[in-house]
Amino acid sequence: MPELPEVEALALDLAGRLDGRAIVRVDIAAFSALKTFDPPLSALEGTFVDGVTRHGKFLDISAGGLHLVLHLARAGWVRWRDEVPKLPPRPGGKSGLAARVILDDDSGLDITEAGTKKSLALYVVRSPQDVEGIARLGPDPLSDEFDEAALQRILTEAGRAQVKGVLRHQGTIAGIGNAYSDELLHAAKMSPFKAASSLTPEDVSTLYQAIRTVLGDAVERSRGLAASELKGEKKSNLAVHGRTGQKCPVCGDVVREVSFADSSLQYCATCQTGGKPLADRRMSKLLK
């Protein structure tokens, strides 16, 4: 799933490619992806792109006073094409194409989504705040307003909620998903199951520094990369997420996993839980 660093890099890459370019049209191949009807997609035709920005994990292409907003969800991506096909995409095709943005020189963007669970969302709005998911976003963890005191308030208000869930909740902190929440907690040497309100001031300071450092470093590594390079860059720099069974790069212990209905988390017991493996309730049920 694209998270804050990847969406930030996508915004930077697309800003350079799209600035001042005219949108000829936007073709929809997966009608379920389009979540708005007013303004219509046709309102973007002939408009000039004047910026590409990010709101949490939302990508925002502004053109002609309107905003084409994308949420790539778990399996979405944006691919640049130097030349798009002459024929419009066929709805319901098996290519994974959800939408195509055609520009004034026949180049464009393919917006794709892999897999069968379709969650990618596309909006055409007059203001980004017209998208409910953006309007509900918490503070951006790399913004000036997100300081240590802000994190302390968030954790205190979360009560006994597990700290991993607090980090992932977009209405609490914007832009952190499953992968980077694993990475932040590993960097902070903290259990993902730790209750948010139980963190000491020292814990909060450590977690805050991990958030700023891990995300900040990921943004810097991704800066200037093309969209086609971002997935590989992210994967190659993860310490624990997606590395179940491999060695922790810090202590050499095996990276462990806890599975849930539709996701999983990875952690290092030596670094994060005092050597104690976390209960994997899903696996426990399978073994009974």
TrEMBL record:
Residues 2-93 form the Formamidopyrimidine-DNA glycosylase catalytic domain. Keywords: DNA damage, DNA repair, DNA-binding, Glycosidase, Hydrolase, Lyase, Metal-binding, Multifunctional enzyme, Zinc, Zinc-finger. One of its GO terms (biological process) is base-excision repair. It catalyses: Hydrolysis of DNA containing ring-opened 7-methylguanine residues, releasing 2,6-diamino-4-hydroxy-5-(N-methyl)formamidopyrimidine. The keyword 4Fe-4S does not apply. Residues 239-273 form the FPG-type domain. One of its GO terms (molecular function) is DNA-(apurinic or apyrimidinic site) endonuclease activity. Its cofactor is Zn(2+). Belongs to the FPG family. This is Fpg/Nei family DNA glycosylase. It comes from Nocardioides guangzhouensis.
